[in-house]
Design goal:
With 366 residues, the chain is an alpha+beta fold. The protein has twelve helices and 20 strands. It has an eight-stranded antiparallel β-sheet with strand order 14-13-10-6-5-18-19-20, with helices on one face. The longest helix is centred in the middle third of the chain and has 19 residues. The chain is globular, with a radius of gyration of 20 Å.
């Protein structure tokens, strides 16, 4: 096993989840992530926790979406409802042998499944916000992801582990330093009201007064590096063009552009898979509103690799999520989806807060 895999597992269990003796841990991922699932399971045993696994089989998901009736597709198993109420910690590991396995599925059928997960996601976000459920998601590098990033597997492994600073003897020290700096920025952002984002094809305004900015420094997503909040739902106005492909539910949508009025998406377009974008935006009333606004701060990640986990963290970008708010930010939007899309601010991008320029060309200047 690559020693960086064991180091990542140790970091997830001890730094990100802060797992304790006796806690119930669910480790979820595809079979492609088996080395990291195994390493995390063993680390959880070391701290005296009670781990169990949920091995995701993409072929069964595809079969359900293609062959199941609408009732079957929308069915939420009672064990899943109990699970989200009972577990103390969740480690989600993303790894796939085929990133496009759902490309042949009718978007409307995917929308049925996403909508059915609404109550589950609401319960999940509620528990994470109140602190009764700790969660972290991470990437295990596979050939499919390496091909998506147009890299060899060894180069992609170096990229993934490098973004998490796993080359360091103690990566947690780096992430604690990130936390200190980002919390300084959060204290400033928590005092602002009006936010104005400008870039090529983007002129977007919103209000955030009373909402809470959150520093992300490796305790929920990993690798990490972002600062986010939830805008006041009916205040988002203007347009935004996203620089990188938007990925959701096994689909890739290119060149997404959204226009907002009174907080709602009133116009949208994409150069590829626009029908899927439309289907997702029509899932429910909340899908056309903004649940999150964020700034990426991981300058170790410099280019898009077609993976939202990394793309949304690129130092010098911002991202916006349509759909569900993250409750800890104070956001109130409810939806069955939470779809992050990334806008590059490194070439002429600006963020203006209450009339004052605070961010230029991909960096905070405060």
């Amino acid at each position: 096993m690559d020693p960086r895999v064991r180091k990542l597992a140790k970091l997830m269990i001890n730094y990100s989840l802060k797992l304790k003796k006796g806690q119930l841990l669910l480790i979820k991922g595809e079979i492609a992530a088996q080395p990291l699932i195994q390493a995390a399971f063993e680390e959880a045993l070391k701290v005296g926790a009670n781990p169990y696994t949920d091995i995701v089989l993409p072929d069964t998901i595809e079969a359900m979406l293609k062959q199941g009736s609408p009732t079957q597709i929308g069915y939420v198993h009672p064990m899943k409802k109990m699970e989200v109420s009972k577990i103390d910690a969740l480690l989600s590991i993303w790894a796939s042998e085929n990133l496009n396995y759902l490309s042949g599925v009718d978007p409307k059928r995917q929308a049925i499944q996403s909508k059915s997960r609404g109550p589950y996601m609401k319960k999940f976000f509620k528990r994470t916000a109140e602190g009764s459920l700790s969660w972290v998601g991470t990437q295990f590098p596979t050939q499919a992801d390496a091909q998506k990033a147009e890299m060899s597997l060894s180069d992609y492994e170096d990229f993934v582990f490098g973004a998490g600073h796993l080359h360091l003897a103690d990566p947690s020290k780096h992430w604690k330093k990130v936390a200190t700096e980002q919390k300084r920025l959060v204290r400033i952002l928590n005092r602002i009201d009006r936010l104005h984002i400008r870039a090529d094809g983007t002129d977007l305004k919103m209000r955030v007064k009373g909402r809470k900015w959150i520093s992300c420094h490796g305790t929920e997503n990993f690798p990490d590096g972002e600062i986010f909040s939830g805008p006041i739902e009916d205040t988002v106005e203007g347009k935004i063009s996203f620089s990188y492909p938007a990925l959701y539910g096994g689909r890739t949508v290119d060149s997404v552009r959204l226009e907002f009025k009174k907080g709602k998406v009133v116009a949208h377009e994409a150069s590829r898979n626009g029908d899927y974008l439309t289907a997702m935006l029509n899932i429910d009333k909340g899908a056309r509103r903004v649940g999150e606004i964020a700034v990426g701060t991981n300058y170790q990640i410099k280019e898009s690799t077609g993976n939202t986990l990394f793309d949304e963290k690129i130092g010098g970008t911002c991202h916006l999520a349509v759909g569900a708010s993250i409750p800890e930010s104070g956001g109130k939007n409810n939806s069955a989806i939470h779809w992050d899309m990334v806008c590059d601010l490194r070439k002429g991008g600006e963020i203006i807060a209450d009339g004052k320029l605070i961010y230029r060309n991909g960096k905070f200047i405060i």
